[in-house]
Specification:
Elements: H1 3-38, E1 41-47, H2 53-62, E2 66-69, H3 76-84, E3 92-96, H4 102-105, H5 108-117, E4 122-128, H6 131-141, H7 153-170, E5 173-176, H8 182-193, E6 202-209, E7 220-223, H9 244-251, H10 256-276, E8 281-288, H11 294-308, E9 312-317
Parallel strand pairs: 1-3, 1-4, 2-3, 4-5, 6-8, 6-9, 7-8
Helix pairs in contact: 2-8
Length: 323
């Protein structure tokens, strides 16, 4: 091999290595970015027993978070990894950690350090309350404090405060619920986690027949028996309110369309109030005699109105087909 050929090979070798290293570095960077984008947001809910952890968790669940109650702290990084593999289906995870899992509680510090090393964005919400209020709450439900053992409720509270002292100091958000009711606590959680969008309201519109009894889970009841019954029209009797001819007959009656318009407006006011009070689910029961014609047709129309207003709506016809 000539000297010139050796020189050419020596000059080419470093250039090839540099190019390979650059490609690997770019690929690694792209992988890291993709991994970071897939990591779900994490909120750890903890605090004093009786201070409202369950209410805070339910609020996040209503806001679309994936909530796990009483998860051993050592499993939190695993839960985050599973969320990262969900391809965006589990983008926000809330974990409730409390003294019920006290044998695992010492692992929390290690888990938090593990999450920090993996660049996981996490927030700690700590629910606090005064001793007097906590004692009163435990006495009202006649349940012992998880840590009181053979002692008094105040002994359990003291032990819990000592156990949670460091975690409280690390908390990103501390909420004192001593003077808060359930609705006020939910409002505080909404303010922190709902973002700019108003919390979503979900509605179930259920048709039913009065002769089969009122739905036990109804929040609002509408009586459509003020309209003529299609049952007495021979050509309409075999059909239900899902039939276009039956629906046309119902809403061509005097007052039917006006009622639908007025009631839809009323529901807008009610929905706003429900959101302010932290209520996220509402069941509207629409009834007629047998739950076959008028209530079915009205439920369909009302559900369509609610959906057009941005309310997530499900329609259920409880008694249709029972005759």
């Amino acid at each position: 091999m000539s000297d010139n050929e050796r020189q050419d090979r020596q000059e080419d070798a470093p250039q090839g290595a540099d190019a390979t290293e650059g490609t690997q570095e770019d690929t690694t960077t792209e992988t890291a970015v993709a991994s970071d984008a897939a990591i779900p947001e994490l909120v750890i809910i903890s605090g004093m027993s009786g201070a409202g952890r369950s209410t805070a968790a339910k609020c996040l669940e209503d806001l679309g978070w994936f909530v796990v109650d009483n998860l051993p702290p050592a499993l939190i990084p695993t839960m985050v990894e599973l969320g990262a593999r969900s391809q965006g289906n589990v983008a926000r995870i809330a974990v409730v950690v409390d003294v019920r899992g006290r044998r695992f509680f010492d692992n929390l510090r290690e888990s938090l350090a593990d999450l920090e090393s993996k660049n996981v964005t996490r927030r700690i919400v700590f629910l606090e309350s005064s001793d007097e209020v906590l004692v009163r709450r435990f006495e009202s439900v006649r349940r012992p404090h998880p840590l009181q053992g053979d002692g008094r409720i105040v002994d359990g509270i003291d032990a819990e405060r000592e156990l949670l002292r460091e975690l409280r100091g690390d908390a990103d958000l501390v909420i004192d619920t001593s003077s808060l009711n359930v609705h006020e606590l939910r409002a505080k959680m909404d303010a922190q986690f709902a973002g700019e969008e108003e919390p979503e309201l979900r509605a179930t519109v259920m048709s039913f027949g009065f002769k089969y009894g009122l739905p036990v889970d109804a929040d609002l009841v509408v009586d459509m028996r003020f309209l003529p019954n299609p049952h007495w029209v021979p050509e309409l009797r075999p059909y239900t309110g899902l039939n276009e001819e039956v629906a046309a007959y119902v809403f061509n009656q005097p007052g039917a369309k006006e009622f639908l318009d007025r009631y839809a407006e009323l529901l807008q006011l009610i929905a706003a109030g429900y959101r302010r009070e932290g209520k996220r689910y509402v069941t509207i029961a629409v009834g007629c005699t047998g739950g076959k014609h008028r209530s079915v047709a009205t439920s369909e129309k009302l559900a369509a109105r609610l959906a057009s207003q941005g309310v997530e709506t499900v329609v259920v016809h409880r008694d249709m087909g029972r005759e």
